[in-house]
Structure formats: C-alpha cells, structure tokens
Amino acid sequence: VATSLIIGVNQMNTAILKVATGDNAANIKVRYAGLKMSQQIASFNDTAVGFIAVFSYALAYAFIPAGVILFIVKERENNAKHQQIVSGVSVFAYWFSNLLIDVVKYMIPGIYVPISILIFDITAFRTGDIYGMVWVLSILYGPAIMSFTYLTSFMFNSPESAQVATFVFNFLIGFILMLLAFVLRIIQSTRDVTLYFPELILRLFPTFDFCWGMFEITQGTIWQILYKLN
C-alpha cells in the first residue's frame, strides 16, 4: 500500500512537471527506504515466529515418544521383556540399552532442529546466545523424554492405545498448555499465580519444558514490557 502511494504521487508530480516545462521527456526519480523496525516491533514479530515454530516443533516432536512407547508396551505385552530377563539380562542392562538406542535415534531430529533454523533463516532463534540455547534444549530433550516415556509406558496394556494417548498428551502439553501458560502470564490477575502453581506442575513434563523453553528464549523484550524491567 505504501509503495503504491509513493508511485502514484510520483506519477502525478511527473505529469505536472511535463505540463509546466513543456518537455515530455521530463521525469522525476524517487528513491525510498523503509524505516527499520523498533526493538518492540521486532520483539512482537519474534513472538509470532516463536508461536509458529513451537507449534511445528510440538507437532513433530509428539511423534517421537509415540513411536518409542509402542515397542516398549508391545515387548511387555508379548513377554519379550520377560524372556530376556529370564535369559539372564539384568533389568538395568535392558532399560539402559533401550535408552541408549532411543537417544541415538532421537539425535537425528534433535540435531536437525538447530540446523533447520539456519536452513530456513529463522532470525528469532539466531540472535545473541539464543542459538546456543536451542542446541542445549534440543540435545537434552532426548534423554528426558525417553526416560519419561518409559515411566508412562507402565500405564498402558495396549500398544496402540499407548501410542495414540502419548501423541495426544505430548502435543497437548507441548503447545496447548504452553500457550495457556503464556496467556496466564499476560493477564495481570493471574501473573503471580501461574509462576508458582500451573507452571511448576507442567515443568514435570519434558515436552512442555522443551516447547516453553523454545518459545521463551525469543520473548526477552515481551517479558520486559510485561514486568516493566529495564
């Protein structure tokens, strides 16, 4: 809209110049440059980018524990785990070997997340020390979510039910409740409450921690505005 207005005004002035000078070759050249975004405007832009990125990561990462829990529950259902333990495999060796393999497999998407930020040039996650924080969150999320998934696997007897429930739960925790925590912080009357009650409970879940961490590290100016920090 702004560009069209400038072009229109320039065409009008050029026409006036041609009539005034009688020279049909007369022309007015105009150059313009947009104003740089202020820090607050850039921060609101980062907020939007953070929402979109966290939604994408929460949806994609919900598939990881859903895939892991399927085989854990299935091994318990068909007594494959029991057969290994009876054959002399210690409980520690069984769980540690599973954890090691699952963490190694996780490193493929875990490493891709920081790399994808460079590929798609998501500047909200590249300024200052934020990019290093993304690497830390991505790498540490693997062991945390695998251990948590093993723990919750004892709640299910059906591999299919476990897979569906785990996917829905992790997406709900990762994005929907992360969004709820953000809204509760924005509202003045619930700002102090959410820091001590809902968030402390939600921080027990690795997916919430990952998504909340990815979102929060891009919102420095937003928090300064909300809490009136200098």
Written description of the protein model:
The protein has 230 residues and is mostly helical. The chain contains eleven helices and no strands. The longest helix has 29 residues. The two termini are 36 Å apart.
Strand residues, percent = under 5%
What is the number of beta strands? 0
Tally of helical segments: 11
Distance between the ends: 36 Å
Oligomer: single chain
Basic shape: elongated
What does the main sheet amount to? none
Uncertain regions spanning at least 5 consecutive residues: none
What's the rounded overall pLDDT mean?
Answer: 83
Structural class: mainly alpha
Rg on CA atoms, Å: 27 Å
- Helix share bin: over 70%
The arrangement of helices and strands along the chain is HHHHHHHHHHH
Strand-helix topology:
Elements (H helix, E strand, L loop, with lengths): L1 H20 L17 H23 L1 H15 L2 H7 L4 H29 L10 H23 L6 H28 L4 H6 L1 H5 L3 H11 L3 H8 L3
Helix pairs in contact: 2-7, 2-10, 3-6, 3-7, 5-6, 6-10, 7-10
Please sum up the structure shown:
Helices cover 76% and strands 0% of the residues. The chain is mostly helical.
What would the keywords be for this entry?
230 residues, mainly alpha, 11 helices, elongated
